[in-house]
C-alpha cells in the first residue's frame, strides 16, 4: 500500500543523507521523496511516498523517522484530507500536424507547452500523481524523449472532516 | 635578547586557537581520558594538548581501532562517555569498526576526527575521507564544524546527545584550518534540540496494564538487557523481582543487571544461553522485556519465540518496541523510571508457585555441562577457575568467539558494569583494548581480558599501552589454535570442512608479551592451571597468559540458525 508521510525537519547539513540512508538501510521502498523550504526559516518539509505492505513496517518507518535528531514531526497523512501535487516535464516528439493533436490531448489536463523546438515539445503538467500518470500514458505513443518528475509534495487541507492523528514517538504510545 | 625570547613564548602560549578551544571544551565536560592517535589534520589539536594545561590523560594507542575499543571499555564500565581523537582519512577509517560497534551496543562515544582544510574538502585532497558520508549510518549523530564559533556549542551538544536517551556514538569532524584559526572572545554554548526529547517517564496507563498483567500471569518471566544497566536500575529490578517472585533471564549484554547467583536468576537466554532461560521464555504467558532489543541472537527463529506470551517491553527507544516482536504493552521510558512506577503499584503476587518450582527444578536438571578429557585444559573449566580465583568480582572483557560464550556461561556475575563484550556487532579485536579503557576508568578494580588466539592477534599491539602505563590488565588467551567458533560451525553445519579456520602457526604469545615488556606465562596441562592462575593474579602488573585449551571443544547448548528456542542442541551431555 502506498503511504504518504510528511516530515518537518531541521535544515542542518546532512539531514537528507541521514534520512535517505536510514530508509535505504532499513529497506523501505521509496517511491518518491521531496524536500524543500517550509514557512519557517531553517525548517524544511519532506514528503515521502513509500510502498509498505504491513502495519508493523509502517510503524517502524514513522518511529525511525521520529528517532532522527533533526526530525521535528512526522505525520502519516495517507488517510487524511490532503492536497497533493506533483510536477512533471515531458518532452515528446512532435512537429507539424502532431502538435495540434498533442495540444488536444493535454488540454483537459490543464497542462501547458513550455518549450518548442523543430521536432519536439516540452509539456508541463501538475496535479495528483494519477493525473500525471494518465497524461504520460496518453503521450507515450508519440514517443517520450525525456521525462522528469518532481515527486509528490503534500500537506493537510485546511479543513479536516475528522480528527487528525499525529504520529509522534512520545504521543503514540 | 633572553627577555625578548621569553615574552615571545608567553605570547605564543596566550594565543587561543580553535584547538585550544576544543581542549577547553573537553576540560569543561570533565573528560578524564582521551584515546587517540595523531596525524596531519589533527596536528594543531595535538599541539594544543602539548601546550595547554589539561586535566585529562591522553592514551596513545598503537592503532586507532585500539583507541576506540578502549573508549568503549571505558564507557561501558564507568557510564561516562568515551572520547577518541583520530586524524583524517585512514585515521578515521580505522575507527569505523568501533563506531559501528558502539552504535550497535548503544555506547556513549564522542569521536573527534581531523579533516582536511575547508577549501580543499571535496577535492580528494591528501588523506581526505568523506567522514560525514561514512559515519552517518553508524552514528547517533555527526557534525562537521565549519565555523570556529560553532565548536564549543557542538561539543556540548555532542556530549548531550551521546549520553542521554539511548546512548550512542557521535562524530565531530573538524577541518584543520578551524583548529588553527585564532579565536576571538567568548562563544555562545547554548543549544536547543527540539527534535530530540527522549521520553523518560512511562505512560501511567501502560504501567497499570503491566501491573494488571503481572497479577494475572501464571508463567511470567523477565528479560533484562543492557538498558537496565544504562539506567542504573539494578536495585529497582531486584526489588521488583523479589517482591513478586518473577524469574529473570538476561541477554548477553544484560549480564550483571541481575545477580547471576540469585535463586530467581535463570541466567542468560539466547543462542548459547541456558536451556531453562530459553524454555522459560518459550513457555511464558507474560514476557517482560526491560531494556533489551529482541536481537536475533536472543530470539532465534521469531516464529517460535515466546509463542504464548503477552509481551511487555520497556525501552527508551520507541523504535525498538514492536520492531521484531509484537508487543501488547509498550512502555517508552527510562528503565529506572518505569520500574519505580511499577513498584509504586500495589500488585498481588501472581499465583505462579508451580511455575517457579518447575523452573527451579529445570535449573537443577539442565545446568551448563562440559566434558573434560584429561589430556587437555578444559576452556570451560578454566573460566570456572578464573571465577573462583577472582571471587567472581573482576571486570571481565571478552573478545568474540567460543571463549566469549564460555565466559558468559561460566563467569557468573553478581554486580553491574563488570561485563564488557561486543554483542551486536560481534567485533573480534574488541576485548583486549576494551580492557585498557576499563582499567583506566576503574584503577582499583581487577580487569581480566578473556580473549581468543584469533581475536587477540587483531589488536595485540596495544600491549605497548599496558606496559607503558603499567596497567595491571590480565590477558587470558584461550588458545585453541583455531578460529574456534568458525571451526565449530563448520563441524556442525558444514560436515567438518574446516575451511581456513585452524591456524597452522601461532606466535609464541609469551615471547610476544615479553617483547613488549609484559610478563608472559603459559599453561599446557590441566594440573598447571591453578598454579598459573595464582601466578597471574598475585603478580602486580600486566600479564599475558597463554592457556593451551582443547581445540575440539564446542559451545553448548545451542540454538541452531533458523531454529526456535525450544529446539536447543546439546542441552544434556
Ligand atoms: C572482525 C571479525 N572478523 C571475523 C569474525 C567472525 N568470527 C566470529 S568468531 C571467530 C573466531 C574467533 O576465533 P578466536 O579469537 O580464536 O576465538 P575462539 O572462537 O577460538 O574462542 C570469527 C572468525 C568476527 N566476529 N569479527
Ligand atoms: Mg581460538
From TrEMBL, chain A:
Annotated ACT domain ranges read: 4-79
**Reaction it catalyzes:** 2 pyruvate + H(+) = (2S)-2-acetolactate + CO2
Q: Which GO terms describe its cellular component?
A: cytosol
Coiled coil ranges = none
> Which keywords annotate this record?
Amino-acid biosynthesis, Branched-chain amino acid biosynthesis, Transferase
One of the GO BP terms on file: isoleucine biosynthetic process
The catalytic activity of this protein is classed by the Enzyme Commission as 2.2.1.6
**What pathway is this protein said to act in by its record?**
Amino-acid biosynthesis; L-valine biosynthesis; L-valine from pyruvate: step 1/4; Amino-acid biosynthesis; L-isoleucine biosynthesis; L-isoleucine from 2-oxobutanoate: step 1/4
- Domain of life where this protein originates: Bacteria
Name the Pfam families for this protein: ACT_AHAS_ss, ALS_ss_C
Task: List the Gene Ontology MF annotations in alphabetical order.
Answer: acetolactate synthase activity; acetolactate synthase regulator activity
Q: What does this protein do?
A: Catalyzes the conversion of 2 pyruvate molecules into acetolactate in the first common step of the biosynthetic pathway of the branched-amino acids such as leucine, isoleucine, and valine.
NCBIfam families according to UniProt: acolac_sm, PRK11895.1
Listed PANTHER family: ACETOLACTATE SYNTHASE SMALL SUBUNIT, ACETOLACTATE SYNTHASE SMALL SUBUNIT 1, CHLOROPLASTIC
Name of this protein:
Acetolactate synthase small subunit
Q: Which organism is it from?
A: Cerasibacillus terrae
The lineage, from the top, is:
Bacteria, Bacillati, Bacillota, Bacilli, Bacillales
In the UniProt record, the gene name given for this protein reads: ilvN
Amino acid at each position: 500500500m502506498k503511504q504518504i508521510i510528511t516530515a518537518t525537519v531541521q535544515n542542518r547539513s546532512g539531514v537528507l543523507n541521514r534520512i535517505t540512508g536510514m530508509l535505504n538501510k532499513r529497506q523501505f521502498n521509496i517511491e518518491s521523496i521531496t524536500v524543500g523550504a517550509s514557512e519557517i526559516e531553517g525548517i524544511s518539509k519532506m514528503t515521502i511516498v513509500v510502498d509498505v505492505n504491513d502495519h508493523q513496517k509502517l510503524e517502524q518507518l514513522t518511529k525511525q523517522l521520529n528517532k532522527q535528531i533533526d526530525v521535528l514531526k512526522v505525520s502519516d497523512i495517507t488517510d487524511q484530507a490532503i492536497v497533493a501535487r506533483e510536477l512533471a516535464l515531458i518532452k515528446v516528439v512532435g512537429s507539424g500536424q502532431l502538435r495540434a493533436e498533442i495540444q488536444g490531448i493535454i488540454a483537459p489536463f490543464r497542462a501547458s507547452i513550455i518549450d518548442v523546438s523543430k521536432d519536439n515539445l516540452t509539456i508541463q503538467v501538475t496535479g495528483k500523481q494519477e493525473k500525471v500518470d494518465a497524461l504520460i500514458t496518453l503521450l507515450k505513443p508519440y514517443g517520450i524523449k525525456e521525462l522528469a518528475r518532481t515527486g509528490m509534495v503534500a500537506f493537510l487541507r485546511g479543513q479536516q472532516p475528522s480528527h487528525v492523528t499525529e504520529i509522534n514517538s512520545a504521543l503514540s504510545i | 635578547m633572553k627577555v625578548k625570547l621569553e615574552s615571545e613564548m608567553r605570547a605564543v602560549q596566550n594565543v587561543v586557537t580553535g584547538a585550544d578551544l576544543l581542549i577547553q571544551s573537553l576540560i569543561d565536560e570533565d573528560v578524564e581520558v582521551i584515546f587517540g592517535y595523531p596525524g596531519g589534520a589533527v596536528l594543531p589539536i595535538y599541539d594544543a594538548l602539548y601546550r595547554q594545561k589539561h586535566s585529562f590523560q591522553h592514551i596513545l594507542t598503537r592503532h586507532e581501532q585500539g583507541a576506540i575499543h578502549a573508549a568503549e571499555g571505558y564507557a561501558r564500565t564507568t557510564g561516562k562517555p568515551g572520547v577518541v581523537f583520530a586524524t583524517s582519512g585512514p585515521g578515521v577509517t580505522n575507527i569505523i569498526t568501533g563506531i559501528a560497534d558502539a552504535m550497535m551496543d548503544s555506547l556513549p562515544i564522542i569521536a573527534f576526527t581531523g579533516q582536511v582544510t575547508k577549501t580543499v574538502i571535496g577535492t580528494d585532497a591528501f588523506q581526505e575521507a568523506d567522514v560525514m558520508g561514512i559515519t552517518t549510518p553508524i552514528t547517533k549523530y555527526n557534525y562537521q564544524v565549519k565555523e570556529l564559533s560553532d565548536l564549543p556549542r557542538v561539543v556540548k551538544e555532542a556530549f548531550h546527545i551521546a549520553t542521554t536517551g539511548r546512548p550512542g556514538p557521535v562524530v565531530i569532524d573538524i577541518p584543520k584550518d578551524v583548529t588553527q584559526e585564532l579565536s576571538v572572545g567568548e562563544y555562545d554554548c547554548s543549544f536547543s534540540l527540539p527534535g530530540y526529547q527522549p521520553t523518560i517517564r512511562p505512560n501511567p496507563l501502560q504501567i497499570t496494564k503491566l501491573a494488571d498483567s503481572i497479577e494475572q500471569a501464571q508463567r511470567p518471566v523477565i528479560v533484562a538487557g543492557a538498558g537496565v544497566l544504562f539506567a542504573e536500575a539494578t536495585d529497582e529490578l531486584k526489588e521488583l523481582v523479589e517482591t513478586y517472585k518473577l524469574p529473570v533471564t538476561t541477554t548477553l549484554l544484560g549480564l550483571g543487571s541481575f545477580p547471576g547467583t540469585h535463586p530467581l536468576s535463570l541466567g542468560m537466554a539466547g543462542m548459547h544461553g541456558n536451556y531453562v532461560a530459553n524454555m522459560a521464555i518459550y513457555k511464558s504467558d507474560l514476557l517482560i522485556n526491560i531494556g533489551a532489543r529482541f536481537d536475533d541472537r536472543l530470539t532465534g527463529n521469531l516464529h517460535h519465540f515466546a509463542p504464548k506470551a503477552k509481551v511487555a517491553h520497556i525501552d527508551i527507544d520507541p523504535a525498538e518496541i514492536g520492531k521484531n516482536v509484537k508487543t501488547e504493552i509498550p512502555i517508552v521510558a527510562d528503565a529506572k523510571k518505569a520500574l519505580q512506577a511499577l513498584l509504586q503499584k500495589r500488585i498481588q503476587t501472581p499465583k505462579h508457585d508451580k511455575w517457579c518450582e518447575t523452573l527451579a527444578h529445570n535449573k537443577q536438571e539442565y545446568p551448563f555441562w562440559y566434558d573434560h578429557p584429561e589430556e587437555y585444559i578444559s576452556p570451560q573449566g578454566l573460566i570456572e577457575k578464573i571465577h573462583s580465583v577472582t571471587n567472581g568480582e573482576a571486570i571481565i572483557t571478552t573478545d568474540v568467539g567460543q571463549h566469549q560464550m564460555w565466559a558468559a556461561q561460566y563467569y557468573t556475575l553478581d554486580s553491574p558494569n563488570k561485563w564488557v563484550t561486543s554483542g551486536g556487532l560481534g567485533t573480534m579485536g574488541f576485548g583486549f583494548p576494551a580492557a585498557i579503557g576499563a582499567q583506566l576508568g576503574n584503577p582499583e578494580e581487577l580487569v581480566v581480558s578473556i580473549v581468543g588466539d584469533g581475536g587477540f592477534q587483531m589488536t595485540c599491539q596495544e600491549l605497548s599501552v599496558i606496559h607503558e602505563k603499567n596497567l595491571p590488565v590480565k590477558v587470558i588467551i584461550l588458545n585453541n589454535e583455531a578460529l574456534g567458533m568458525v571451526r565449530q560451525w563448520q563441524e556442525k553445519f558444514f560436515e567438518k570442512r574446516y575451511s581456513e579456520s585452524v591456524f597452522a602457526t601461532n606466535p609464541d604469545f609469551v615471547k610476544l608479551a615479553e617483547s613488549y615488556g609484559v610478563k608472559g606465562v603459559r599453561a599446557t596441562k590441566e594440573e598447571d592451571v591453578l598454579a598459573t592462575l595464582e601466578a597471574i593474579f598475585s603478580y602486580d602488573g600486566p600479564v599475558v597468559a597463554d592457556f593451551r585449551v582443547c581445540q575440539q571443544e564446542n559451545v553448548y547448548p545451542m540454538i541452531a540458525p533458523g531454529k526456535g528456542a525450544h529446539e536447543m542442541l546439546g542441552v544434556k551431555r
